[in-house]
Amino acid sequence: MMKKMKDPLAIVDRLAERKPLYREALGLYRQLAERMIEVSSPSRRLSFDENMEKMKRHEGFPLFERQALPIDLASASELLSGFMSDLIHEERPDTEGLMNALKISGKDPDWSTRLFEAILKEDHAALAAIAEDVGLDPDGLRYLALIALGPEMEALGNAVSDRIDTENWDYGYCPLCGSKPSMAYFTDSGKRYLHCELCGTEWAHQRIGCPFCGNQDHEKLGYLEPEQEEGHRVYFCRKCLKYIKTLDKRVIEDMAPMELENIVTLHLDMLAVEAGFK
Prior knowledge:
Blueprint: H1 8-18, H2 23-36, H3 50-59, H4 73-87, H5 95-107, H6 110-120, H7 124-134, H8 138-148, H9 150-159, E1 181-186, E2 192-196, E3 202-205, E4 221-224, E5 232-237, E6 243-248, H10 258-263, H11 266-274
Parallel strand pairs: 1-6
Antiparallel strand pairs: 1-2, 2-3, 4-5, 5-6
Helix pairs in contact: 1-2, 2-4, 4-5, 4-8, 6-7
């Protein structure tokens, strides 16, 4: 599940010391984390149709559909507004866009809901239109919105932790919300886990094979490894042309939570994109 980090500010500061190239990106996360510390994850009580739940597990369906998660978007909207209020006081190139977004969301409460729904439905055109209307970069706006969803996703994960099997879910999508993985890692025993881009759930997955298309043809699988960075790889698939950043705990000491490791491995994304993967 997506879990609240213990002492997130200290973790970010330590990571910034080790990865000075990413101090600016980590600085933004730190600002958001300062407000997140004040937010407690709400408790959730959900009712389930046991027969339907059993059928979903048997047929390989996630517990929930990504676009129909039982979460409180109003609470996430309030946190997103708080993020934007904090950021407009900084010297940023997107300050005007953030002010526009804050003004519109204040007049139209449904604006944030439409934003979250576009992200959950993976409607890239709708997200781009929402961002363009306020003068913001779609990726930047999506990043803020995903972090604002964090407490709700954590609450949902806690509520259903005993209803998903993260050790025997051999699919390339999240057992909780059906989202694709953003990263992967190998444990000390060599087992591979995938990390959900949306809710942070981590589940065991076969070592060899593309989590996106299921390809297991060795000739169409491979990896890229940056020089002088042992334990960091980009595994790719020539069949679907997708890739996944992967860390190895057997080599990397004191690995940070995946949400932060995803930030400080953007150079791996660049490496993959330059090689023709997406």
